[in-house]
Amino acid sequence: MVRANQEGGADDKVRIRKEMTRMKKIGPIISDTAAEFYPTLFPSLHFGATYVLNAFPRLYRRTLHDLRGIFSENELSLILESMNSAILSPHSAGYHIAGNVADGIALDHRDKKWQVDGQALSEKLAVLSPFQLACLELWANGFWCAKKQGSRDIKGWKNQLL
């Protein structure tokens, strides 16, 4: 999103208006908590929601970049399998993955299947921030969404984090 300079010059305002007309119009539904939150940081609810929706893809990609090399290929396979059919909730973002992985290890012995040290994987997840964990959840969710749409390139998907 384009920002106006401090003076808010006419050229900046015209450029911003032009960019806004090229954007897709959507109508997300947000919670009361989110509706009250955005105006505390932005000039309006609409501006705040627009900013966050447009900034998120870059933040997500940057976070995946920062997570590269932390997990082995087999650990990523275990994570993907553990997140299969997970239903993500915005209110629990960042808190799905550790439990799903722990259950996958304890109940389904996925650590043995993927030849992974389950305790070490749990420790790697434990030191990540909630935002990093939420991005990892979305990464896994994205794999399963892509697979439903016909993409079966698990190696390519895992390469985002290797």
Detail the topology: elements first, then pairings.
Blueprint: H1 10-22, H2 32-41, H3 45-67, H4 73-82, H5 97-106, H6 110-113, H7 118-126, H8 130-148, H9 154-159
Number of domains: 2
Number of helices: 9
Unreliable stretches: 1-6
Assign an overall shape. elongated
Radius of gyration, in angstroms, nearest whole number: 19 Å
Order of helices and strands: HHHHHHHHH
Mean pLDDT: 90
Please identify the structural class as seen in this structure. Answer: mainly alpha
Q: Beta-strand percentage?
A: under 5%
What fraction, in percent, of the residue positions are helical?
A: 55-70%
Distance between the termini: 30 Å
Instruction: Report the sheet with the most strands, covering strand number, pairing sense and barrel closure.
Output: none
Tally of extended strands?
A: 0
Features:
162 residues; mainly alpha; 2 domains; 9 helices; 64% helix; elongated; disordered N terminus
Task: Give a description of the structure.
The chain is mainly α. It folds into 2 domains: 28-56; 73-159, no CATH class. Helix content is 64%, strand content 0%. It contains 9 helices and no strands. It has helices at 10-22, 32-41, 45-67, 73-82, 97-106, 110-113, 118-126, 130-148, 154-159. Helix 3 (45-67) packs across helix 8 (130-148). The longest helix is centred in the middle third of the chain and has 23 residues, at 45-67. It is elongated and about 60 Å long. The two termini are 30 Å apart.
